[in-house]
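Tokens as discussed.
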């Protein structure tokens, strides 16, 4: 089979050095990558680096190798174009169809999925001109990955940071994987949608050093967030105690307890098209919290731990639907009578879809794989065979999309 052909456009931002790592990941995983930098990008990383890492000649101009008509051929032949980093200037040019160098020409001739990974200072990202350009590109079907929040060049921090190269690589892999489903110029299937995903496991504190927790790793919720972002959604990931890398283009709200998770999910759900509750939420929390560490005392039995109920967030959202037409998805971990318990739970919680996993020793928790049956309130049953958590994530979004108004 031919190697997938990727064009890596690089515009003139300091994050260009991080694009070298993205390039290396792409070539090592069997992609044929053509790097097309802008003139300004070469101030940060030189042509020799791009050429050596990609194994292809590198040019910024339409006037090199004119007999090969590179300004048309490179775009035409690509399976995917990713511009990383994309500066405010490059986004403006792309939004307006300017074509004054090889990269902007390539963007006009590409008929494949196009991904932009903007990186710039917060003020430039938030400027209405940039935001309107981004909206234009998204409307035309491009996937614009929101920058991350964090340290920027110099002493500044804020939104505008280039996502981790490993996470951008994951976006490329997913978009290429779905390439066959994407109609030319059509927006990705979750474009314009806002989805909320909860992930991880809540921790209910007993004292400053101890908590009641569970074994959820957060991997299934993170897979859902990554999948939705690669399919064009604006994603809010409410993450409870998950020690996992931040997915590219995802807005992350870290929480600790079930009560904090409820607050964060309800806030984000106000304008969400779908809410997926993948988090393992503690049903109970200790009634009291000791502000000092609980000490053992010689000759005394330990004090019993009294538990009180936590709010059932899934049932609350499914019952109230903060937004009309919102699709609500729950998870159920069952050890026996999986289907019957799943059906009963679906009805009790009032959600549209319930993803039922069988759990037990070595199953599901912490693993990269999962197997599930997705039950629909309409009586449907979708079995998802044992496989990567991202396959289950994609099936869940397929089922959500079918139900969105
Ligand atoms: N959930 C929730 N709030 C809670 C507990 C659970 O929103 N306080 C959500 C989980 O995120 C998950 C679903 O409800 O999507 C199923 O949770 P589970 O604990 O299996 O269901 P329970 O109703 O607690 O049933 P069980 O009697 O099996 O514990």
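Sequence:
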């Amino acid at each position: 089979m031919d190697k997938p052909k990727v064009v890596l456009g690089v515009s003139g931002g300091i994050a260009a050095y991080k694009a070298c790592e993205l390039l290396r990941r792409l070539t090592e995983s069997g992609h044929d990558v053509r790097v097309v930098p802008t003139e300004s990008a070469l101030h940060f990383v030189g042509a020799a680096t791009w050429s050596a890492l990609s194994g292809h000649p590198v040019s910024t101009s339409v006037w090199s190798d004119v007999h090969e008509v590179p300004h048309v051929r490179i775009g035409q032949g690509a399976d995917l174009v990713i511009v990383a980093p994309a500066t405010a200037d490059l986004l403006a040019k792309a939004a307006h169809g300017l074509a004054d160098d090889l990269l902007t020409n390539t963007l006009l001739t590409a008929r494949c999925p196009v991904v932009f990974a903007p990186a710039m200072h917060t003020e430039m990202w938030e400027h209405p001109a940039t935001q309107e350009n981004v909206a234009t590109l998204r409307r035309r079907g491009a996937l614009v990955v929101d920058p991350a929040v964090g340290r920027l060049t110099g002493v500044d921090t804020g939104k505008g940071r280039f996502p981790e190269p490993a996470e951008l690589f994951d976006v490329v892999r997913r978009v290429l994987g779905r390439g066959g489903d994407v109609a030319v110029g059509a927006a990705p299937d979750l474009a314009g949608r806002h989805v909320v995903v909860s992930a991880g496991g809540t921790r209910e504190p007993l004292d400053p050093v101890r908590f009641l927790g569970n074994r959820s790793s957060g991997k299934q919720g993170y897979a859902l967030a990554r999948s939705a972002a690669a399919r064009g959604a604006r994603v809010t990931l409410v993450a409870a105690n998950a020690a996992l890398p931040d997915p590219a283009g995802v807005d992350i709200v870290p929480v600790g307890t079930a009560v904090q998770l409820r607050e964060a999910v309800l806030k984000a759900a106000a304008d969400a098209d779908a809410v997926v509750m993948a988090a393992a939420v503690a049903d109970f929390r200790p009634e009291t919290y000791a502000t000092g560490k609980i000490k053992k005392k010689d000759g005394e039995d330990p004090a019993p731990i009294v538990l009180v109920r936590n709010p059932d967030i899934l049932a609350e959202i499914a019952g109230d639907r903060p937004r009309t037409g919102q699709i609500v998805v729950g998870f159920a971990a069952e050890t026996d009578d999986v289907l019957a318990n799943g059906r009963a739970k679906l009805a009790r919680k009032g959600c549209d879809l319930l993803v039922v996993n069988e759990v037990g020793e070595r199953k599901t928790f912490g693993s990269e794989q999962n197997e599930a049956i997705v039950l629909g309130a309409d009586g449907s049953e979708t079995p998802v065979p044992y496989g990567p958590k991202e396959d289950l994530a994609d099936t869940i979004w397929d089922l959500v999309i079918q139900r969105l108004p």
